[in-house]
Specification:
The chain is mostly helical. It is 81% helix and 0% strand. It has a single domain, classed as MFS general substrate transporter like domains (Growth Hormone, Chain: A, Up-down Bundle). It is found in: Cell membrane.
Length: 416
């Protein structure tokens, strides 16, 4: 197997860079920091979890509405990297800004978090679209999977540093508060993200594009309208997006709300952080394994495996009671989390017309983000109605089943 090229390595490295945000801000430290701030302000535990869910829904809906339009404009020569740069800068700056919001201002924390989510998710629209520029179709599953794997490994480094600072603060070994330690972790995340984004800015460029138009915005809207008119021409692509809409909903919801869920179950923050660290370590080799198995058995079959594992996760989560149960659940998630995301990305990249990759990855994003609205809202509403977050997690089973059924109808992509 051919070694990774400079462009492939640089593209993969961005997963290493941005995954620090995914674990520290989206999954681990920030949710716990926010939950503590809300609790200290007298907000009920179920309500604070619901507010986090609503916040994620608002942020993702904003980006979902913008993604196809921005993606269509970015297909013009020279625009992709400009949009990518803007959203990376927005995400990094807002992540750093979280460190300067007073810990008792839980509402402002959610506002800054909303903007950070838009920056992070927006950058991923164009990052994913760059896959067609750096890898040939026969290498896409391997490159995409390696990106997720390296992301899991890389994210553990700033995560360990952040957790070490927080635990030393809790033990009074270093003379700072736990609040200050958490805020330091936000700065570490921003610095890590910025530093390791340098290779993709230096070495990855837009190869496939549409020649520039004198009126790119107006022309982009026309192209979007034409795409919808020709939807039958892209039947396989949009059928996959429909399947993706349902199953990625459950995946994203479980990732973003796992620590809030664990907190509501009474699991202490130290245990939660250790579980999340081990999950990252275990997920890395499994992501690579999914990529290798996809080359042998096809991406679609391995997506079936990932969806089936998540169905088991949702059912098991309903009966969760102890920290041991949470450990088992986390390891199940680790076995498929990276694989299902990596192969979804590479499978879709093989379906899209390369010169219109940004436009179609805009649709990929909008389907994924609107799904991310439905899942958190479902969990949030169920948590408030029943008083038990586990009921909301269990309800996600139906989304995985619907996604699985639709995925069976999607034909294998034709090699170009």
């Amino acid at each position: 197997m051919k070694r990774f090229s400079r462009e492939e390595k640089s593209w993969i490295m961005y997963d290493w860079a941005s995954s620090a945000y995914s674990i520290i801000i989206s999954t681990a430290v920030f949710p716990l920091f926010y939950k503590a701030a809300a609790n200290n302000s007298g907000v009920d535990a179920a309500d604070s979890t619901a507010y986090l869910g609503y916040t994620i829904a608002i942020a993702t809906s904003i980006l979902a509405l913008l993604a196809p339009i921005l993606g269509t404009i970015a297909d013009y020569q020279g625009f992709k990297k400009k949009f990518f740069t803007f959203f990376v800068a927005l995400g990094i700056s807002m992540t750093a800004a979280l460190a300067f919001v007073p810990s008792d201002q839980w509402l402002w924390l959610l506002i800054f978090y909303t903007i950070a989510v838009i920056g992070s998710s927006g950058s991923n629209v164009f990052y994913d679209a760059f896959l067609v520029d750096v890898a040939t179709e026969d290498r896409m599953s391997r490159v995409s999977a390696r990106g997720f794997s390296l992301g899991y490994i890389g994210s553990t480094i700033p995560f360990i540093i952040s957790i070490a600072i927080i635990m030393l603060a809790q033990s009074k070994i270093i003379p700072i508060s736990t609040t200050s330690a958490s805020q330091i972790s936000f700065v570490i995340t921003a610095l890590w993200w910025g530093l390791f984004s340098i290779p993709i800015f230096k070495n990855v460029n837009q190869i496939y594009y549409i020649p520039r138009d004198p009126k790119p915005v107006a022309s982009s809207f026309k192209r979007l309208a034409e795409t919808f008119k020709e939807i039958k021409k892209y039947r396989a692509l949009f059928l996959f997006l429909l399947a993706y809409f349902f199953y990625i909903d459950g995946v994203g919801t479980i990732i973003t709300m796992s620590t809030a869920y664990g907190t509501d179950l009474g699991i202490d923050s130290t245990t939660l952080l250790i579980v999340l660290f081990v999950t990252q370590v275990v997920a890395a080799p499994f992501a690579i394994l999914y990529g290798k198995l996809a080359e042998k058995f096809s991406e679609k079959r391995m997506l079936y495996v990932g969806i089936f594992v998540y169905i088991i996760v949702c059912i098991y989560a309903f009966f969760l009671e102890t920290a041991t149960d949470f450990w088992i659940l986390a390891m199940l998630v680790a076995s498929s989390q990276g694989g299902i995301q990596a192969l979804s990305r590479s499978y879709f990249a093989k379906l899209v017309p390369k010169e219109r990759s940004n436009e179609f990855f805009g649709f990929y994003n909008i389907f994924g983000k609107f799904a991310s609205i439905m899942g958190p809202l479902l969990v949030a509403a169920t948590a408030q109605i029943t008083g038990h977050t586990s009921s909301g997690v269990f309800s996600l089973v139906i989304l995985f089943i619907i996604g699985l059924v639709i995925l069976t109808k999607v034909p294998e992509p034709k090699s170009s």
